[in-house]
């Protein structure tokens, strides 16, 4: 089964990166404003897009503070259900954190897979900016996706597999429903 893999170095301690991928506030800061997280084994993380036209429900399968987070997708578009997302964190040489990201067990490289690969790469940079003290804001607050009405939730995160050619001017539409 195909996997999506990314690696990025973040100039922040592993504990800060761990917090960004396990807490509601952390996830809202770099991914989508409509995020909630109950970070405990078996707990759920939920992500909503386009006023919840598309939602993803992830179960926490592994939590090792400062080291590892694993989600199993239990709800969302069919292509995602049964996949696993992991963040493996290592202390970097000279400080910082090396993040090894994986989205595993895709059934095919057709459909949303290529777009998801692109968006996950961008999300790693959004996570990096947040953890290094930047204010990237959630990715899905900044981008618009004009193709949503045509293709709907088959895409990565509802309307959010935006490639640069898909981005409309300005800050984009607000795809989350949570507070700013």
Outline of the structure:
This protein is of the alpha+beta class and 180 residues long. 24% of the residues lie in helices and 28% in strands. The longest helix is centred in the last third of the chain and has 19 residues, at 113-131.
Number of strands: 7
Largest sheet: 7 strands, antiparallel
* Average of per-residue pLDDT values: 82
- What would the CATH topology be? Alpha-D-Glucose-1,6-Bisphosphate, Chain A, domain 4
CATH architecture: 2-Layer Sandwich
Task: Give me the number of helical elements.
Answer: 5
Which regions have little confidence, pLDDT < 50, spanning 5+ residues? Answer: 142-180
**CATH homologous superfamily title:** START domain
Rough shape?
globular
Estimate the helix proportion, in percent.
10-25%
Q: Strand order within the widest sheet? A: 1-7-6-5-4-3-2
Distance between the terminal alpha carbons, to the nearest Å? 38 Å
Q: Could you spell the SSE succession in H and E letters?
A: EHHEEEEEEHHH
Number of domains: 1
Our estimate of the beta-strand percent is 25-35%
Alpha-beta content class: alpha+beta
The CATH top-level class label: Alpha Beta
What is Rg? Answer: 15 Å
